[in-house]
Amino acid sequence: MSRSLKARIGPSILNSDLSKLYEESQKLLNNGADYLHLDVMDGHFVPNLTFGHPVVKCLRSKIKEAFFETHMMVSKPEQWIAPMADAGVDQYTFHIEPITNVEDVCRKIKENGMKVGLAIKPGTPVSEVEKYINIADMVLIMTVEPGFGGQKFMENQMEKVKLLRENYPLLDIEVDGGVGPSTISCCANAGANMIVSGTAVIGAQDQAATIKLLRDSVQEAILKQ
After folding, report:
1. C-alpha distance across the termini of the chain, in Å
2. Which entry of 39, 42, 137, 172 is annotated as an active-site residue?
3. Domains (ranges, CATH) in the chain?
């Protein structure tokens, strides 16, 4: 095989003290985070509002090397492709639900030099995203309803992860929502290799130990596949 799966842990910074965004983000990276997961909400696709490309660009000006993934929970993801590319985003992950031409959005993302992530909500069948896997770098399976932190993990979403892993052995599969030490084995054994964890990591007394626990669980599952 030309490449193998890697276990990667990307804390969601939304749960951190946003008045100290740079300090909190750098702390996560110092404690072993593999990437930063930046939740962008527009108040339309989801009933909440977070931050946009000016904040991301400001963060990038201080954190030069880290991998930035923006999770675009927005109604018009095509509208923010160029601004997020300019802000220094590495991977642009968007929801397919509000889009009529997913291929076109993917093409624009790649033209702007970013990787493509495709996200689906819990109510969206996995077959909807399978249509586009050949043009995606990653698929995100939401394990809560997008828009709010601190929700309960939906274990039934692991069937989607299992199906994708069985059919696409080298696909990067991300899970996001209610993931922490108590639910990581479920995600890892289903086949997820990219783990977004907000509350469990941000609020941990020992962030480094929590990140290591999550990564070790995923790496162990990968070795068993």
Report:
1. 14
2. 39
3. 8-224 (3.20.20.70)
Burial of 38: CB neighbours in 10 Å, binned 0-12, 13-18, 19+? buried
Reply yes or no on whether 176 is catalytic: yes
* Whether pTM exceeds 0.90: yes
Task: Answer yes or no: are the C-beta atoms of 175 and 140 closer than 8 Å.
Answer: yes
pLDDT of residue 4: 86
If one counts every other C-beta atom within 10 angstroms of the C-beta of residue 22, the result is 12
- Please indicate whether residue 39 is annotated as part of the active site: yes
Q: Which of 34, 137, 172, 176 is catalytic?
A: 176
CA distances (Å), origin 212, targets 26, 87, 125, 192: 17, 29, 32, 16
Q: Tell me: the pLDDT tens digits for 21-74? A: 999 999 999 999 999 999 999 999 998 889 999 999 999 999 999 999 999 999
Distance CA 97, CA 161 (A): 18
